[in-house]
Amino acid sequence: MHGPTRRAGIGKVWFVRFVWAVAAFVIAALMIGAGIAQRTIFEPPPAEATALPAGEEEAYTVIDGEVLNLFPGAQTLTVEGEGTLFAAYGRTADVQAWLADVPYNHITVDGGEFRTRVVEPEIDPAAEEPADAAEEAEGTEAAGRTPVGSDLWLDEFQQERRLSTPLQLPEDMSVLVASDGTAPAPADITVTWPVDRSTPWAGPLIVGGGIVLVAGVILYLLGIRHARRSRGPRRKGLPLPPTEPIDLAVEGRKKGVISSGRRKAIKARRPFVVVPAIAVSTLLFAGCSSDAWPDLSVSATPSPTASVIVPEGQQSPAVTETQAERILARISTTVAEADAAADADLAASRLAGPALAERQTNYGLRAQLPEQTPLAPIPDRPVEIVLPQAFDEWPRSFMTVVEASDDTTVAPTIMVMTQADPWSEYKATYIAGLEAATLLPDLPATYVGAVLAPPDSPFLRLRPDEVAAAYADLINNGENSEYWNDFDTAGDLLLPSIRENQQQRLDQLNQTGSGTSSLEFEATAGSGAPMALTTLDGGAIVAVEVRESDIVRPTNADAVIRLPENPAVRALTGVEQSATGFQTTYADQLFFYVPLEGENEPIRLLGYRSNILEAKVLE
Question: InterPro entries recorded for this chain (predicted)?
């Protein structure tokens, strides 16, 4: 009674499953095709390359930071041309200052388009030159200034014919492109930005399509199964003769064998239908890289750190840490070459002030006294502290502390480097060794910098321009000095060594002078300008020069002063005896920590260095 209705319902079920299987196949094909298309025909190019417009035939071209940051991501600069190509980058203000006296091409962004214009000189260097130099240069073509090796650059590159380098510069930095400073700058300049090629939906689409494909296969197989079950009873065969009985047991066994074998065959074929779909999905899944999936990682919450507050209106630090290390390495190399050749002119290219004066004297002594030892070399690593002056103009300075890498018995070296103008190199002006167990005050971070305290600053315990004279008075008068309580004399190792040295010379004079000569000691402030960089607590590290003089005079008209035990003075004066006497001067390079005015803390000597400076015959 219900047979036709039941068969109709079963037929409808397997038909619906066939429809859903076809729909699944279509959806799977669309999903997998879309995922593959994202990784192939629709994948963006690897980079965005733009050729910058060429300017006039000037010796320098500046690429503004806005140009480099027109698109997100790191930049790759490519320059092509003849001969040696040069590129460097630095703060835009520094690059413009270095080019202030010459015309140059400036590439900027205007309304989303690149434009190149010629920037005329802001200053006329000829106006600063003496008249004879201007006349000598008249009618001749001035040689270009090479940009190679300038201390202003944060980094520089040189290659032949083609220069390509990756960059990642902020907007306040610019790139300088040139050849040799005389020939026109290369005009073929290209900047390339990387393009985000990630396709976060490619992986999910391909894998999801594979899952839908497997579901479609399952629906298809279920549809086939139901279609077979939905068939009506088979047509009966011809009636058997009544004289031929049927053995039901045998027939049942035969049917059972045939039925069982058919079911096994069907079960054995099903896995081979499903496996290809799973294999295809697995292969597609394996071909998807990490950028084909959404980034579901949760970034860790950073732990709070101490905030560094830059005072309002403070200018940029003169150098970065990497820049300071490169400058120090150049100074160390140049001075080592000068020491080996005793070349004072070469030393003057990287030294100035008291640091240069002591080496000039040492070179003179070595020329006449083969046994005279050279001064200690300038170490360049490892750099422990870099404290740059926060200043956008010139002159600008920075202080550094360098450990002795190969000798633990040698005290760390503290130095001050100064750059006079944008076209000059940094020169070491003060060099000293830190005292044992010296505790430096808290210093500003390198990327913040320190303000230069003016020489007449009234906010310190002593003004920077008074520190040298006050310490000289301390040497001359000891505890009777009016500045005795201003200095930490208990932790000062230089004062007792000065007194001991003076006593040795007095004893030597008494043994050889026989009462016919006198010895006087006098300390005065040196000619070097003080350098004071502020610390976090409002105090300052102050570098000054103090000069100690020994004056030997005869005590009667018939006496003469001889120098049998002082070959250095004989070499510097050129005489072995004098009826008027001698004056020998030693230069002390000193570093102090000067606290704020009103603080109970005294002024502490951080480091010092003392060497003979000059000797002369008294008139």
Answer: DUF8094 (IPR058407)
